[in-house]
Amino acid sequence: MKQSKEQSLFKRLKSYMGERSILFNLSLVLAGISAVTGVLPFLYIHRVIKALLSTEGLRDWAVVSHSAWIALVFSLLTVILYFVALILSHVAAFRLENELQRQAMHEIFKQPLAFFSKYPSGYLRKTVREAGAVTHSFIAHNLPDMAQAFVSPFVLLALMFYIDWRLALASFIPLGIGMITMLMLTNTGEAKQLSEAYFASLQEMSTGAVEYVRAIPVVKTFGQSVRSFDKFYNSIMNYRDLVMKYTLSWGNGYTIYTVMMEAAAFFMVPLAVFLIGRGENLGQVLSDYIFYLIVAPLFSGSMMRLMQVANNRAKLNSTIESFDRLFADGVLAEAENPIKPEEYSLSFENVTFGYSPDRPVVENISFEIKEGESVGLVGVSGGGKTSIARLAARFWDPDEGEIKIGGVNLKQIGKAELMKDIAFAFQNSKLFKGTIRENILFAKPEASPEEVDRAIEQSSSREIINKLPEGLDTVIGSEGTYLSGGEQQRIALARAILKDAPIVLLDEATAFADPENEFLISKALRELRQGKTSLVIAHRLSSVEDLDRILVVDNGRIVQAGTHQDLLAVEGPYQKLWLEYQKSLQRQIKQEAAHA
Q: Among 15, 56, 438, 441, which residue's Cβ finds the most Cβ atoms within 10 Å?
């Protein structure tokens, strides 16, 4: 099973190389041949030693010279073959890395919006980059080493038994003990679990590091430390504990392995003395002994390289498995014959959805937002409001029921058309590293300067742009130019206003804004909703007072519906939320007055 999995991995990697996969095979072949030619010089070195130690060696310079030249030729041939193998493997590796990352980005663009909620950008960047880097390193460097490491031991073994099988056996006693010790260290269930846990922990810590670096401004603002970022801190501690446990588990075994791999000479000395004592030719025995002193470490070195390759192959397997997991869920099915809605009402019909089958977060809800109507979703945190909004944008497909725009099931609307028909304004607006103009125009690249100017005005972004050094052409993040969270939100709203989509989804768009930005963002949101079919999520109930209707969501169900005044007039969840909201406002006013 392991072998077939390994073969499928290499088969898949070769598929990314295209026609250059032949270089993969040629590199293996040339590296294997270089392993053979790399051993042959030692055969002729043995002949040189044997000639020099014989009684006629000093007079037989022809044998010494001939053998030395052949050893030199084989050594040069080994270098050339291995060099060419490395060139071929590098060319194949560059093609593989480029194609792997290109296809990864292609797959990422095909993913539903839920994919980007599940995987943070730091994790995506690291996984894709690491998949390219690790596969490149393995194919470029470890592939030729793998061929050599597999071939060299067999050639060395044959040569050692060809010279003198008795000394060969003596030299293999410590080598055998060392290899058995290493196999016991690496092939136990606990060792494999520790190795897998180590790589998983390393990846978790690396991902956490990226997210923590991005959060440093917030951490410093509140005077916190790394400990405040619990996920990152815990991943560091977990990695430390695993490294200590993994390292200590190798202590005794690796010591035995290291000693045994260097102890061949001590096992051969008694045998060599015994053979000489039996009357065998002193020169022959000494030349053979010297040969084994040289070659035995080569055999142990080949084993070490084989282990390093195996370790890197395990890392490659772990990396590719992480890469595969990114796209394991697949993409949402595309409509074969997409339908364009004739109007833009939004309706949920008996919709049930859960992130896991046995735990629905939205359960059998039904409502309709007529074209041009604005409807709010309110309720306690975790009640399912955000899931409802994201289902409306087809982040996911519901487990049961239907979601329709203009009477057309979302599954029957083309992906491009659906994204064209919906504008978003969520809590954490994202701006690209580019100019303000490029960020706004991203929603509608063909927009005229007048349309851009109108979007800026309606989003209350004019003052932001006027204070920037290059105005609309200022590059965000360049030369210390940064925007606050509220300012980013207003620029993002300008982008959404310019898009002029018939349906608007708003999810806590003022959640993290200061009072001044909250007022301006609320004003921009009213402009954005004007004449649009709008679904608005809010914790600050003041932002839903003027909506056409309000839906109260609790535990994935709609428990109340009506206008602000209607819901306040009856005792129920909305009235309770409103009273708690008013109390929180009073507390906030008192706190501000106390600090004034």
A: 441
Q: How many CA atoms lie within 13 A of 38 on its CB side?
A: 25
Determine the pLDDT at residue 104.
85
Instruction: Spell out the residues 6+ positions from residue 304 whose beta carbon is closer than 8 angstroms to its own.
Output: 261
Neighbours of 327 (CB within 10 A): 15
Query: 9 or 323: which carries more pLDDT confidence?
Result: 323
**Residue 199, C-beta contacts closer than 8 angstroms, at least 6 positions apart:** 314, 315, 318, 319
Tokens 């059998």 appear where? 364
- Report the DSSP beta bridge partners of residue 534: 374, 504
Joined together, the tokens standing for residue 270 give 């008694």
> Given a cut of 60, is residue 7 above it in pLDDT?
no
C-alpha to C-alpha distance for 68 and 382, rounded to whole angstroms: 80
CA-wise closest residue to 370 among 561, 556, 557, 531: 531
Task: Determine contact, residues 491/452, Cβ cutoff 8 Å.
Answer: no
d(CA 514, CA 524): 15
Question: pLDDT, tens digit, for every residue of 203-218?
Answer: 777 777 766 666 565 5
157 vs 42: CA distance, rounded Å? 13
By the 8 A CB rule, do 140 and 93 touch? yes
Contact 211, 124 (CB under 8 A): no
Q: Is the pLDDT of residue 2 over 50?
A: no
Q: Which amino acid is at 330?
A: G
> Hey, which residues does 347 pair with through a beta bridge?
368, 404
Alpha-carbon distance of 594 to 68, in angstroms, equals: 94
Which residue type is seen at 101? Q
User: What letter represents residue 221's amino acid?
Assistant: T
Least confident of 75-84, 382-391, 586-595: 586-595
**CA 277, CA 279: separation in Å to the nearest integer?**
5
- As given in the structure block, the two tokens for residue 565 are 């005044």
Whether the pLDDT of residue 451 is over 80: the answer is yes
User: 547 vs 31, 252, 348, 411, 525, CA distance in Å?
Assistant: 73, 72, 19, 29, 12
d(CA 375, CA 242): 51
Overall pTM > 0.85: no
Sign of CA dihedral 117, 524, 343, 554: positive
* 41: its two tokens: 């010089």
The burial of 589, by beta-carbon neighbours within 10 Å (0-12 exposed, 13-18 middle, 19 or more buried), is given as exposed
**Cα(541)–Cα(377) distance, integer angstroms:** 10
Read off the pLDDT of residues 478-527 as tens digits, 9 standing for 90 and up: 665 677 777 888 888 888 888 888 998 887 655 555 556 667 777 777 77
551 within 8 A of 446, measured Cβ to Cβ? no
